[in-house]
UniProtKB/TrEMBL annotation:
Coiled coil: none annotated. Residues 136-260 form the GFO/IDH/MocA-like oxidoreductase domain. This is Gfo/Idh/MocA family oxidoreductase. It holds the Pfam family GFO_IDH_MocA_C3. GO terms for molecular function: nucleotide binding. Residues 4-116 form the Gfo/Idh/MocA-like oxidoreductase N-terminal domain. It comes from Paenibacillus thalictri.
Amino acid sequence: MNKVKIGLIGLGNIGANRHVKYLQTMSNVELVGVCDVIKEKADAFAAAYNTTAYYNYLDLFEQSGLDAVIIAVPHYDHTPISVEAFARGLHVLCEKPLAVHVNDAQKSIDAYEKAKAKHPNLIFGMMFQERTLPFYKKLKEIVSSGELGRLTRATWINTAWFRSQAYYDSGDWRATWAGEGGGILTNQCPHNLDLYQWLFGVPVRISGHAHIGKYHNIEVEDEVTAYFEHENGMIGHFIVTTAESPGTNRFEIVGENGNLVYENEKLVLYKNRVSTLKHLQETKEGFGNVESWYTEIPVKTDVPNGHHVVAEKFIQAVLHSEKENELIAHGTEGIKGLTIGNGIMLSSFTKRMVDVPIDGDEYELILNEKIKSSKFVKTSRADVEADMSKSFT
């Protein structure tokens, strides 16, 4: 195989503004079809990119001769499409999140594992492109090196997600339990949740406080504060909202050997002369801090990053199966950040701290009841001036 025959399902914001464009620049890819339930949209993109339009993903699977598929549709549809793709032996690159809830995510993973028995070289990737961003890669490098010693706290305040009421009114599916399955945790923050678990793993206990429609006329969460406990004793904080402007993106990672702070495109290490934990046990002083040094960590930012890097690694793995371990994110990892997000909401709904793994059946039951009992009247506007490409910044 010299080229991967690929199909793109979903021509909304991400499909139209990212995927279909970078695919045209890849010499080892043939775009054999684009698929969208809106016929006019599929026809327009097919004409523009010299491919075939499909209006149903089953037709794309059966008629296009594709080897792999990129799934970029609304969240609930990730599960049935990925399950069907794996059943047909197709490679899958799935947009975030893997699913709305962990039970559906597990269905996709189980379908993949079953298909692997028949197709051992099957590739399953997640579009977690923020893992390729230079500052986050450097955070991963430093944390993984063990330079900070025993980690004691991670606090991420990420409120740079401002969204207006007009944004939420721009689609009848946005910010509804039935259409999107959640609010900021499901739409804006799957990357943040993935990065958190990528750095520290999934916590063992979660306490979540989610405010529903606190600042916007929506029926899902637009402000969340969460507290995590990890098996090694580290605690975490996660604070997000779509209602602050200007917003903040500040990440503090604290270890016995120093503090690492990322904010305003600057990464600073406050390196301790000795371990804080050792010092507090041994010092005879009651108040003296550990001596530390301020160091601004250089980060090379002019390196390839973003969606196309994830896709290139995926395509290389499809062409050369031994490169599967070079995927930016394996599909099975998608359930980890989702577990944190579902855990936050389950804790908030039940007003109790929850253990991980969470009870997926309990969360799915609550979510289905939210959908069934919803009396929310969604306002949709056609006059919204919204350049959706800005949602990627």
